[in-house]
Backbone:
């Protein structure tokens, strides 16, 4: 029975069908934003939830509890579906809708390319903490400078306090109306302020962003490098075995030639 279920969930068409049902779940959620209280959509949502429950049960039976729950992505799927069951009869409509929307995250473990990106992001978190610390340090230094010199130039919501300065710097680093709303009014009153904004944009927006991208890309390519090294090791091992077989065949041919003489 377990072998039959394992063969079924490992069938090439099984995962594409599940992905299609997840897309259907998203279409139902979008339709509910236009048609509220539709009995057909609610019934279809319950059918989709039942299919998700059946999928998890089939995988648990096919792989066993230990193997199924050894994967973090399987835990992710299980918790989302379990949350949908818990909030199925809840009177809080907003909580139920939130859980339904969270079901769309099942698209991540279902599609290998998305799963690869998320895995790389998770692996890069320890390295990104250093970049985050550097970012906080740079933002804090520039926020203190901005609060000190530009407090009386613009209204308080820009550089009036330390936390307001941090928010303003976030606006500057995202290039959202930073020149017309923040930089130019200050430069008109404080001419040297252009160096403040130019250096902050170069360091905060360009350097830090490139550091984050570089760290993520380095981890994104690690799996490919590991797979390539594994393939190369396997090819080298096969070549060594083939060379050994050729040597044995050659030795046998030499012995036969000696015997014929």
Residues:
């Amino acid at each position: 029975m377990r072998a039959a279920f394992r063969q079924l969930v490992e069938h090439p068409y099984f995962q594409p069908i599940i992905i299609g049902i997840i897309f259907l779940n998203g279409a139902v959620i979008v339709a509910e934003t236009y048609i509220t209280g539709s009995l057909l959509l609610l019934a279809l949502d319950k059918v989709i939830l039942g299919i998700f429950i059946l999928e998890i049960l089939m995988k648990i039976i096919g792989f066993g509890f230990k193997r199924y729950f050894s994967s973090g992505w399987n835990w992710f799927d299980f918790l989302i579906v379990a949350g949908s069951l818990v909030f199925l009869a809840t009177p809080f409509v907003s909580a139920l809708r939130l859980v339904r929307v969270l079901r769309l995250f099942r698209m991540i473990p279902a599609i290998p390319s998305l799963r690869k990106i998320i895995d790389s992001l998770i692996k890069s978190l320890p390295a990104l903490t250093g970049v985050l610390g550097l970012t906080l340090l740079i933002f804090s230094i520039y926020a203190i400078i901005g609060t000190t010199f530009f407090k009386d130039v613009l209204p308080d919501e820009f550089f009036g306090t330390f936390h307001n300065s941090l928010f303003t710097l976030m606006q500057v680093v995202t290039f959202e109306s930073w020149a017309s709303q923040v930089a130019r009014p200050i430069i008109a009153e404080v001419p040297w302020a252009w160096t403040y904004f130019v250096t902050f944009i170069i360091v905060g927006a360009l350097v830090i962003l490139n550091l984050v991208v570089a760290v993520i890309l380095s981890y994104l390519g690690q799996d490919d490098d590991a797979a390539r090294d594994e393939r190369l090791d396997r090819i080298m091992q096969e070549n060594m075995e083939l060379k050994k077989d050729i040597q044995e065949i050659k030795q046998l041919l030499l012995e036969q030639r000696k015997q014929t003489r």
